[in-house]
Specification:
With 160 residues, the chain is of the alpha+beta class. The protein has 7 helices and 6 strands; from the N terminus they run H-H-H-E-E-H-H-E-E-H-E-E-H. It has 2 domains: 64 residues, Winged helix-like DNA-binding domain superfamily/Winged helix DNA-binding domain (Arc Repressor Mutant, subunit A); 81 residues, Gyrase A, domain 2 (2-Layer Sandwich). A 4-stranded antiparallel beta sheet has the order 3-4-6-5, covered by helices on one side. A two-stranded antiparallel sheet has the order 1-2. Helix 1 crosses helix 3 and helix 5 runs antiparallel to helix 6.
Length: 160
């Protein structure tokens, strides 16, 4: 196709990141079209890999689906309890304990964001998290009762 240009993955990913930050990335197709408008031909599979590489997640904001960057959604690395409460109350649908785990449910495509926030907030009671598409497993540290961790999550998520 005339006007197409070859660019590196890093530059393409910066363009995709900027498009996401502008709030226009409602689908992978929209991103493919945005790049095509700039003379950059890519497949949807390439866009999917780029989204994964830059930490983009599918989110629902104001009833509208779209992509966001985890760094933009989760806030600064030093998350306050207030910001954590905002995130949890909006994105956590349910939480329960299972052995040494707290299992958190989110809307599809939102687990990354909550898992990332929990990793960055550095609670003494959390050894780590594993996030899937809509479920996060939060591993309680030895010596920290999982019931206390569950209560804290539920309280911040307004699930009590």
């Amino acid at each position: 196709m005339a006007g197409e240009q070859k660019i590196g993955a890093a530059r393409r990913r910066r363009i995709v990141g900027d498009f996401i930050r502008n709030g226009d990335a409602v689908s992978q197709e929209a991103i493919v079209n945005h790049l095509a408008d700039r003379g950059i031909a890519v497949t949807q599979a390439t866009v999917s890999r780029d989204l994964d590489a830059i930490g983009a997640i599918k989110v629902r904001i104001g009833g509208r689906q779209g992509y966001a960057l985890t760094e933009d959604v989760g806030g600064a690395p030093d998350l306050t309890e207030e910001r954590l409460q905002e995130l949890f109350s909006e994105w956590i649908l349910a939480a329960e304990s299972a052995g040494h785990l707290v299992v958190i449910r989110t809307p599809p495509g939102s687990a990354h964001m909550i898992g990332d926030a929990l990793d960055r907030v550095s609670w003494d009671s959390v050894a780590g998290t594993v996030a899937g598409d809509d479920t996060i497993m939060v591993i309680a540290r030895d010596g920290h009762p999982v019931k206390d961790l569950l209560a804290r999550v539920k309280s911040l998520a307004a699930l009590d």
